[in-house]
Every structure is written in structure tokens, then in C-alpha cells.
Automatic annotation (TrEMBL):
InterPro entries: Elp3/MiaA/NifB-like_rSAM (IPR006638), MJ0683-like (IPR040086), rSAM (IPR007197), rSAM_sf (IPR058240). SUPFAM superfamilies: Radical SAM enzymes. The keyword Iron applies. PANTHER family: RADICAL SAM CORE DOMAIN-CONTAINING PROTEIN (PTHR43432:SF4), SLR0285 PROTEIN (PTHR43432). Pfam families: Radical_SAM. This is Radical SAM protein. It comes from Candidatus Abyssobacteria bacterium SURF_17. Keywords: Iron, Iron-sulfur, Metal-binding. Residues 24-242 form the Elp3/MiaA/NifB-like radical SAM core domain. The keyword Metal-binding applies. The lineage of its organism: Bacteria, Pseudomonadati, Candidatus Hydrogenedentota, Candidatus Abyssobacteria. Transmembrane segments: none annotated. One of its GO terms (molecular function) is iron-sulfur cluster binding.
Amino acid sequence: MAEIIERERKSSVLRRPALPCLSRYYTINLTAGCPCECRYCYAQSFQPNPGHGKVVFYTNTADLLRAELPRKRVKPALVYFSTACEPFMPYKPILDSLYKVMELLLDHGVYLLISTKSRIPGEFLQLFAGHPGRVHVQVGLTTICDDVRRLLEPKAAAVEERIAMLRDLISHGVRTEVRIDPLIPELTDTEESFGSLCTEISRSGAKQAVASYLFLRRANYGGLAVRYRDWSFLEMLKRLYTHKIEDYCGGTSIRIPASTYRQNKYERLKAIAGDHGLTLSLCGCKNPDLTFDCCHPALPTSTHQPEQEELFSSE
Ligand code: SF4
């Protein structure tokens, strides 16, 4: 586990993410920095990241939120956990604080969208089960080979734990899907790798998945110079990362595989997923040349309340 530095938050808790595709939601990051050390992560270059092996834990988040929520003229419809850290870090004070924050939001009728690569503790599952239809969890998983997982996401939960997590969430009635992101060409998008992933997802009871290829920008380039057996990231990169999107999600420039590669692959991956009873969606932000799909779920109609209309006016 990373070194935890406890600090009091000075600014407001509810923030609008900078990425335009998420900016209609609010987000809460309980920490600055993340212990998972995913090699493709660009969030760790954001300020105020404390640097490798360190995590700043904002200890007063729940108290600030309790004071902040009643002051909001328009109540948040959905809060996303989290844009720049793993929410369920295995450190009790962080989990205790996260529980208070999530409980507070759910008690205020706020919908939670959670993206995680960790095991979610049982008390959270009970909490979510008590608010049916209010919590949507995306479990990140791109491979069932734990050697590949360890190479790409060295300190995130093992494959087995994430599959178990899918089962636990589904058995507690939580809306659950798998986030197959980032797919890495010729490593995790092969028939064998993707097919066995779909087999395990399907066995877990999940029915939905969202996928997207790894995109590259300066901040996440260096850490990915890895090899696995006869596959080399740098060699693959030179051949396939030939397409540039200048206006990715509102401004930055990214590199992704060429349209023809992605189009052919996505069609094939969707077919494989379909053979396993899974519906696969794509991320439209990272594939504006291919789809308008969104990789974040719409709110269920039962949660559509008057104060949430503002959220959907742009849809
Ligand atoms: S879990 Fe998310 S925020 Fe943390 S290192 Fe991995 S990609 Fe980055």
C-alpha cells in the first residue's frame, strides 16, 4: 500500500470533471493519487497528485459534503466515483470515510456511478442493496490472464477478485457492467484473450460491457514500454497507433489505432461478446469516427426527478 498522507480539504467536495463527457455529472475524489499504479493511467499526471507511492487522503470530506449538499440550489443527480483515483482503497480510514460519503449521497436521493478495479467490502454491498436502482458499478477488467493484469495494473485487484466482485454485486441486485478499457491491440483484443474474458464475464452473470482501446497522450506513454512473451508495446505502437484525434473530449490530442483497425476489431469483438450473451458498447469520445455510443450509463427512468432535468437537457 502507498504511504497515506492525511490532510484537510480546503475546497468544495462536489466538483465537475474537466472531461466534457463527464462534466454533466459531479465527481468526488477522496484522495489525490492512487495506489493501483496502472501503467496506462494519465490521471496520475493531474495536479495535485503527490507523486509515486503516495496518496493524500482528505479526511474531512464527509463533514464538508454534509454542509455543502443543503446549500446546492440544484441537487446533484449523479456523483461519479472517481475521476482520478480508485475509490475502494484497502485502507480502513479511507473506506470509512467513503462509506459515510456514499451513504449521505444515497440518503439525499443521489445516484452513484462507480468505476473500480478493487474488491468492494461487504458493508458497501449491503448499502447499495438497500438503494435498488440507485447505484451503477463498472468493474474494470480487460483480461483473465493475471500475468497480463499484473503487467498493466500491478497493484489493482487480481482477476479472480474482480470476477468474484462481479458475482457479489449481481447477487446484491446492483446494476453492474464490465469496463473493458483499455483494450490493448494484439495483447487483450485477440480472439483467445477476448473470448476467454467474455466466457468469465458471462459466467459471473453480467450482461453488459463497455469497451475502448488504449489511447495515448504524452502523460501515459512512457510507462507502457512493456513486453509480454513475444509481444512488444513499442513495436505494436509503431505499426498501429497511426491515428490522431486533435479534439479529444474537448481539447487534448490523442493517438489511437487507425479507424479501419478499430472498426474491424470492434465488429468482431461485438460478435464474440454477443455469442456469450453480452451486449458490448463502445466509448464514443475515443471513437468519434465510429460511433456516438456513450460508455457511461443513462439514469434509470425511476430516478428521473424534477431537479435532474438540468442534467439531461444536453442529451
Ligand atoms: S485505478 Fe484508475 S486512477 Fe488508479 S492508477 Fe489505475 S487507472 Fe489510474
